[in-house]
Amino acid sequence: MRFKDRLGQIGALCVLLGLGGLALAGPYGLLEWGESKALLEEREARIAQLEAERDEYQNLNDRLDPDNVDPDLATELVRRNLNVAHPDEYIIELDTD
């Protein structure tokens, strides 16, 4: 074989090995898929948590609608935030741990 042919084959082999290396260990390679999948699952769990929190706040917001306030919730919030109670009431604090 001629030297130029041999050099062309070696160059092609180097290019193929480089592409194979990128396919395995590159930023979008096979090794990165595992990390991407774990990160995706972590973010999906966080999204589910945030959606549940958003639903709680939406429920609270709906119950505090100025045209139709939930009286029990309003009483609870006033007593908790302003530290008020009737003179004949006993306050029992429970540990939430």
Describe the structure.
With 97 residues, this protein is an all-alpha fold. It has one domain (3-82). It has helices at residues 3-25, 30-63, 71-82.
Helix content estimate = over 70%
Radius of gyration: 32 Å
How many helices? The count is 3
The general outline is rod-shaped
Unreliable stretches (pLDDT < 50, length at least 5) are: none
Mean pLDDT: 86
The largest pleated sheet is described as: none
Main structural class: mainly alpha
Cα distance spanning the termini: 80 Å
* Counted beta strands: 0
Strand content: under 5%
The H/E string reads HHH
Domain count: 1
Could you list some keywords that capture this structure?
97 residues, mainly alpha, 0% strand
Task: Briefly say what this structure is.
With 97 residues, the chain is mainly alpha-helical. 71% of the residues lie in helices and 0% in strands.
Write the layout of secondary structure elements.
Blueprint: H1 3-25, H2 30-63, H3 71-82
